[in-house]
Amino acid sequence: MVSSLPAGAVNFLPFGWGQLMDEFLQSLPIYIALATAMLNLVRRQWTLNLISLAVLFISIIPPLLRILPTPLALILPFTGLMVTLILYLTLLNVGGIERIHFFRRPTSGEVFRALVGAFQITILRVFLLTIQQAIFPQVSLNHLFLSLGLVLVGLLQLGTIQEPFYLAIGILTFLSGSQLLISALEFSYLLEALFVAVNLLLAIVGAFFIVKNEESKQHE
Amino acid sequence: MNNTVLIWFALPLLLGLALVTIQRFRRLSAFLATIIPLLLAGSAMVFSGGLTLQIIGRVFTLSDNFQIFGRTLQITADQLRILALLYFLCFLWNLTSGMFDVGRWFNSLSLVITALWGAVQFISPFLYSAVVIELIALISTPLLSPRGTPAKNGVIRFLSMQTLALPLILLSGWMVSGIETSPSAEALVLRGSLLVIAGFSLWAGIFPIHSWLPMLTEEAHPWIITFLQTIMQIGLALFFLTFLNQFAWLRNLEGLTQVLKWIGSLCIVSAGVMLVFQRRLSRVLGYIYLAGTGYIVLSMASIQQGPLELLSLMLLPMIFSYWSLGFTFSALRQALDSEILDYDELAGLVWRYPRISILLVSSLLNSFGLPLFSLFPSRRIILGIVATESLAIRLFISVGILGMVLMFLRLLSVLLQPPPDVEQDKVESPFLALPVALILLLMLVGGLFPQVFSAPLNDLLVSFQNLLR
Description:
Helix content of chain A: over 70%
Order of helices and strands of chain A: HHHHHHHHHH
Number of strands of chain A: 0
Largest sheet of chain A: none
Oligomer: heterodimer
Strand content of chain A: under 5%
Helix content of chain B: 55-70%
Strand order of the largest sheet of chain B: 1-2
Number of helices of chain A: 10
Number of helices of chain B: 19
Radius of gyration of chain B: 22 Å
């Protein structure tokens, strides 16, 4: 619904550019969401990661609006933003919010994660149509790409980190992807309520980990 | 408050949360956390025969369903027996929690976690219970990784694995709807089964994705980890029975029995082999749980031989075995002031702490299912069933048991070493003699008269109608 507004306006463009633009605008939030998830996977700067997380949750609103009524579509993004806020306030309290260094030289670990993440997304894109036809025929290609992409990036994040803050981000990314996929397959108020509880509890657990890690560092 | 869902789910959940506010008063908190589950377990047993009770001319009738978010939650009289078992388990662990330094959160969160494991058994559609299991994993975090120590790898892996299982189970539910409409769809059946088995493997820490299990037992307090793992093992076993009970396609799947037998025997052989090489008693606990999972899976695999009777027979001795292990390891940790319980620290333990040593030896023998001990009767039946299996499975289980025996002999030689010439600053409490004697007595009574443990659970699994033959 949200994305159809600008898309409808560009349909008046000549040479079929309108349709091209329409497709581009529909895919834009999906690529933004995946890019922010990749940024969280690659970069290890708490402030940057929090901003990326917030952008990720905002950019999944248009894909959700395409499959759910507005109030229901806003549950996941709003919960995600609340989780981001809780993590931000926790980091603020422990002095973890610092200036972002955009042009810092990437470490070998960051390059590795970026390459593996990009490889995963590429492979997913290549086999997306096959996966859709074989397993999820009722889910649109764009939606499937976003949800499985987030699942894969979250999975990679869970497998390559040991820091609690990134564990929370990894689980959030993974769960967001899973929730997006499940929302496209079936919707249940009870399930949605349980997922909200999981996400909020995850924020509390993430905050708990951050605080206790800082405490133990101070003791050392 | 005349509803089973409110009494055995909402009430303990709220009381558990209320206990958080008084957790500064350790004794009061521990007392309430002991008495509440005992009352819940007792009342659940009373109402398990029927939801109407007549006392001194007054009739109490409970309704068994509750509407929330457009769904109906239902706890029937038959299911109350399962809840009674879970609350009894919670009671057991809270009963002696005051003896050990388990932290402030244990009493309140143990009650919340028990209520949630109860919810896992009755939420409808039951697949949504997967999200509740994720909630339980998150709530367990403050217990597993208390303040003052940094978050370690075990708890991080544990959370990751529990999270990974969640979408697998939920997606299996969606695939199931396809299977129900086209029962002949073999590909769908296979996919659904794979998702279910993969999900449960991640949850339970089946070999080879069990690495978080010994890591977690090494990091967390033995009393806490034994409670969480025991209730999780039993909760998951009952939840898997729900799957088998609900899904005829899964129950009748050709090859499922064989797959389960292989999974069970792999768990036992890996636990046995790894046990031989351990040098830390805290990690031993993790592998004992892995072997325990193996035996439960084997009992599930014996579907033709009546798995429900077998599971009923092994549940209470298993709970008691884990409880005694938790008690022993916690007492040992307290006595030696050590978190990892390295074998070097245990040298000459028999001469220094004779009562704890006796408890350690007998708890280990009991958990390995040796004759005369309470787990032996159920283990004997399982071994009798697998005796007719392929050579590889028999070999795997034999190697696993051999590994356990070797580990025990190695530990015994450490315990019997001459005591080191260091001054011992702690003296074993003489009051320990009573619990040690009671535990030993119960172990032997359970081994010699198995009906003592199995009789109370005779009708435990009657709610799984489709599995009763």
